[in-house]
Amino acid sequence: MTGIQDAIFFICTFLSVYVQVFFLLTFLQNRKKILIRNGETKLSAYPAVTIAVPSFNEEETVENTLLSLLNLNYPKDKIKIFLIDDGSTDGTLDVMRKFENYPNIKVFHKENGGKATALNLGLEHADTEFFACLDSDSIADSESLVRLMSYFERDQTVMAVVPAIIVCNVKSIIQKVQRVEYNMSVYIKKMLSFLGAIHVTPGPLAVFKMKVFHDLGPYRGAHNSEDMEIAYRMQKHHYKIEHCNDAYVYTNIPPTVFKLYKQRVRWIYGFINNTIDYRKIFFRKEYGNFSIFTVPSGIISIITATYIFCIMLYNILYFFYSNIIQYKDLGFLDKISSFDPFFIQTSSFVFISIFLYCLVVFSVILGQKIVNGKFKISLEILYSYLVLGIVAPFWLMKAIYNTILHKRPEWK
Amino acid sequence: MNNEIDWKKYLIVFLITIGLFLTASYLSNYFGNKKIDQLKLIQDKISIDILSSETQFSLLSELSCKNISDSIYSPELGELGNKLEWSQNNLGSTEEVSYLKKYYSLLQIKDYLLAKKISERCGVKSAFVLYFYTTADNCSECEKQGLVLTSLHEKYPELRVYSFDYSIDVSAVKALISIYKIKDTELPAVVLDDELLTGYHDIDELDLKVKKSFKLQETKPDLKPKSAR
């Protein structure tokens, strides 16, 4: 490696290790505050909640989503369910209409306009103190809502609470990889909530005080990532977002690499573009850790993953190129000599990479522990980040490319 | 909302991260030193081997050429060369590696002189290649030449290849360079049977020359002592 490459690699790895150590220290400082409840949770009062379920061509999953809402451990007269069909071309609306007779369910149909427009339709008709959104590919655990609501009861300054998202129907290797990633995501979200720095209020059952929308306005298109934009807007106005680690929402995840790629291009594109839109609030101490830590660490991870991937790709291509040239020039290839431990690389970069890998694996384990109090080291934990290291740079680079060309990725 | 930034925590994390990097650097140095120790060990073994061979050779008048077994050659010499080259590329050109490389060059010359003497005295079929390369600038021809010679050595184990860094500061190597009048602009340079070949030479060309060298040796009168004493 040249000196410049070494320097960039050093900076990237230093900042990546810094981010992981920061999370770990946050965990050690707050570990006693992490609550995992068993059994039924009770509240002193049950405020009314509107749960909007926006759907676009989800005929296969929407029924289970609705059934899970009907099964919530929360007084039925305190829940209003809005089923919003966003111009589906399949049988989604027919499935929704089967539930029309329930007194607390309302079905809406509108022209296709994107998730933000569907949610805004729900907001227009909502008259409750709280508003939640549940994606129609997700299933809410019966205790999820009451546990989420307990955070509002405990702290009046909380303006939104996000749940722990757990993957379900895991079959393929790429889904196993995502399961590990989601576990780590629970850990990261929890740590960010301790720092007051959550940057996304995701579709699977984030609950808001209606005041948020009254004060800050409805959802925005926001590069097809309205759940991130509303969180950025809340952070800008110092509205507190909490994470409830024992409120479980099960979500279906893309079964193939290509579908995952499309989903992630949209997410990363949303992150980059919302970050650009809100650039004025970064590195400003009045916006707290969100401004100084969350967004910069997201940018660092995109740059590091892309850079390391490019270097590795260059080395692999160079290896093949030099072998082809060698074969062309010499008529034979250099034989691979027998294994000798002497030739194992022991540079400091190798050890730093091992430290970073261990910190990431530890994060996944802590994520498992935060979700259900137990953890298990499995093979998928060990290989997942290697697989992600290979595939993730493709969607990172595509999202960067789309941003440069102002090309918005499709929703589906 | 808690928007206060705990700067002390940012500083502590920074110090912990520095600590992790220093630990990585320490571990790297530790294993690097272990490797250098391993190189020294191999070098000592070769040194003893050569000394032993020289002593054995001095006693040749007392011995039969039969007793000059294959073990007289140090098989570790090639291994040491590879490891030194790897160390120079990966451990950085530390003073210790440079020193070991100088020592290695001397050991090669000693081995060359001894092997040549034994070959002449006992008629052992062998050919010798002195190969001069440079690491000063990116010499792709040198890399190719090195691979050709390695391949030839694998094909003919009797072919002994000694490689020398042209710019190494060892008077014995400088003497070899002046004996064969090698110029730094003509690298890579190969000396095969006292014939100087400059620039890159492909495997077929060198293969022919090596075979010719072996053939010449077969036609030479038998120099072996008639009988053991």
TrEMBL record, chain A:
Keywords from the named record: Glycosyltransferase, Membrane, Transferase, Transmembrane, Transmembrane helix
Where on the tree of life does the source sit, at the highest rank? Bacteria
MF terms from GO for this chain are: glycosyltransferase activity
Listed InterPro entries: Glyco_trans_2-like, Nucleotide-diphossugar_trans
Q: Does the keyword Transmembrane apply?
A: yes
Give TM regions.
6-28, 290-321, 341-365, 377-396
Keyword Glycosyltransferase assigned to the entry: answer is: yes
Q: What is this protein called?
A: Glycosyltransferase 2-like domain-containing protein
Q: Where is the Glycosyltransferase 2-like domain?
A: 50-216
Provide the family line. Belongs to the glycosyltransferase 2 family.
Automatic annotation (TrEMBL), chain B:
- SUPFAM superfamilies, sorted: Thioredoxin-like
Superkingdom of the organism of origin: Bacteria
Task: Name the InterPro entries for this protein.
Answer: Thioredoxin-like_sf
Residue spans crossing the bilayer: 12-31
What are the UniProt keywords, alphabetically?
Membrane, Transmembrane, Transmembrane helix
Protein name according to UniProt: Thioredoxin-like fold domain-containing protein
Source organism per entry reads: Candidatus Nomurabacteria bacterium RIFCSPLOWO2_02_FULL_40_10
